[in-house]
Amino acid sequence: MALSGLLPALLSAVAFGLQYVPVKKYKIYDGTTFQWFMCSGILFVGVSVALLHGDLQYSVPPSVVMGGGIWALSNFAVLPLVKLLGIGLGFSLYHFQNMIVGYLVGRNGLFGLPRLQPAFAGSLYVCDLGCLLVLVSFVGLLLVEGRGSDSEKEKEPGPAPSVHGKGQLDQIEEQHEEEVALDRNLRLLESSGFSAFAVEVEDDEQAPHSPDAAPPEAETERRKTWRKVALGVLLAMVAGSLTGVQSVPATLYGLEHPEYPTTAVFFPQCLGAWFASTGIYLLYGGIARLRRKPVLHAVIRPAMLSGFLWAVGFIFMIQGIHELGFAVGYTLDAVGPIIIASIMSMCWFKEISGRRQLMIYWSAEALQLLGVILITAFSKQ
């Protein structure tokens, strides 16, 4: 496997794995304004790179712009998904779908992409085994219980939120105490480079009932639970699938125009992400206005810095896919950030401790590494 392809894939994994570290200790509230600030940072880097490389002379293909919009939509869909299923199960299902869709698209040459070529007869079955090992490793990571960082967050609280049309936090607390109390439970989890949001919501339904209170109807509760699970699984499948195909238009455009540099698709992708996130924010803000709800704003500079890192990761990802092919390149860039972020979670933030937890964690990481080696070593580019 050419170093020219592996090196960009590695750099992309590092950038995607680090992208949410700048906002780890800050509240993102409902995530809507956070994503808009983040995508503004993405667009800033996109315009800067286009000006430096002279990429504005090339056309802005609508398909690539749509690819950026698909990423923004899938990224935003993770918020309700994790609310419904929780961080562990929600992100695992999301990554399952993202990983398998990206691999199958390149493996079978869907949407007009070149098919993954075997290094020798039957070697693609070994690649399939590698993909299966990576998926099994996600199950292992689901069993790892991080101890969190609530005490750290309390010591270093984020700045008070600003609200569109209001300048004083006390006005929010007086008029919207319930919303502020709920938003206090929201935080970001830097578990991968392909997802933006995670949520910690206290489950009021699990609070003990007073003896005088009537017990809830078991059947009704079961139906509500199954509806939540079904909706969460559906969102995981949709969000993971969208993420798995969001870079297909950019890859196809690069194949159709080999005379263009790989950065030619970068600005259109960034523009699409910003355009979609702006539409989401305007729609959300309009609905909130009609319902007389506050639009809480997240921190600006850390969110934009996260966008900078995502943009850098996407540049290297496109270069890696160009050199290695979609199946291998995307798989490396889907699994690599999870490894990077998990290592940071354990070594830097100390969120994984205990012999049993560490054994499960390192076993899962070993499966991921073995799976990636099998995919890259037994395919031909």
UniProtKB/TrEMBL annotation:
It comes from the Eukaryota. It is a multi-pass membrane protein. It holds the Pfam family TMEM144. InterPro entries: Sugar_transport, TMEM144. Coiled coil: none annotated. The chain crosses the membrane at residues 33-52, 64-96, 116-144, 229-246, 266-287, 299-321, 327-348, 360-379. Its main location: membrane. It comes from Durusdinium trenchii. Belongs to the TMEM144 family. Residues 1-17 form the signal peptide. Keywords: Membrane, Signal, Transmembrane, Transmembrane helix. This is Transmembrane protein 144. Residues 149-171, 204-223 are annotated as: Disordered. It is found in: Membrane.
